[in-house]
Every structure is written in structure tokens, then in C-alpha cells.
Design a protein that fits this description.
Distance between the termini: 44 Å
Shape: globular
CATH class: Mainly Alpha
Number of helices: 9
Largest sheet: none
Order of helices and strands: HHHHHHHHH
Helix content: 55-70%
CATH architecture: Orthogonal Bundle
Number of strands: 0
CATH topology: Tetracycline Repressor, domain 2
Length: about 190
Amino acid sequence: DIVRVAVGLLSTGGLHALAMRRIAAELGVQQSALYWHFDSKQQLIAAVADELLVPVQAPDEGDWASRVTVLAERLRAQLLDYPDGAELVATAIAFRLGAQRPFGQFTTELVGAGLAPERAEVAASVLVHFILGYTTDEQQHRQAAALGAIDEADGGGGSLSAEERFSQGIGLIVAGVEGTSRLPTR
């Protein structure tokens, strides 16, 4: 119930809406009651991050490169569905409290393609951090544009859309993994 309410608040108000007092008020309980379930706000944020990541699944079909690419696109789309979604997940990762699912998913795909586990973990980390960084920038830019703080709604410059820039970034990472690891080509 607590996590469900927190996800709802995140979806309507972003990360700043996840105040313990506000969550308690939504549940009709005292703020101190939340600490029976979560030792800290950071643990609650981690639980919310884990909940957000549940729907993100790797596809069953395609070669390793297309599965990794689709997984990256699905992760970005899920994060974009929630204001500050990328920042929330990045925070949970930084505190080492949760949101480890994407690392495992990418590592599994890359090991399955033949990459050594240690290199797969590094490549997974590069992918996840690119996705989080790119999506955080994208969300912050959209929020600034919505507030009228900047004129440009898309941001990033150039003639490519945000989706095209993201896809090309993932493509470069996949090509780098492919080129340095002697994995089967696409």
C-alpha cells in the first residue's frame, strides 16, 4: 500500500511529491507509522524504484543486439512515464539500496551472447548509466520547458529527435561491445 501510494504521488508530482508526511496523509496514518515499514526515506525511494522497474522486460526474440536495444528502449520509456523517474532510479542505485534489476537484465543478455561475465557487468553498467543520464537530462529539459524557463521543448540541439539521439547512443554502445568482444554480429 505504501509503495503504491508513493508511485501514485510520483506519477502526479514527481520526486519532490514523495515527502513522508504527504505519503502518510494519503494513507491516513501518522508519519511515524511509515518507519515501521521503511527505516528511511531512501529505502522507500528504493522500493518505489524497484516497483517502477517491474514492467520492463527483455524481449524473447531477436539477436542479442536487438534484445539489448529493445530492453534499453523499454527502460527509457518506463522512466519517462513518471516525472523524475530516471532521477528516482538513479538515486536508488547511488544509495545501493535497490534498482539493480536493469543491471542484471543487461548482464544476462550479454553473457547469453557470449560476453565474459566481468565484461558483461561493465557493459551493463555503461548501458544503464547512459540510459539514466540521458533520460534524466531529457526529463529535466522537458520540465524546464514546461515551466517556461527555456524556449526549446526538445533540447539537445541538432536535427535529431530525442528518440533518434537515444537510439544512436545505444547503437554506439552496442557496436562498441560488439567490436571489442568478438560477439556475433547482427
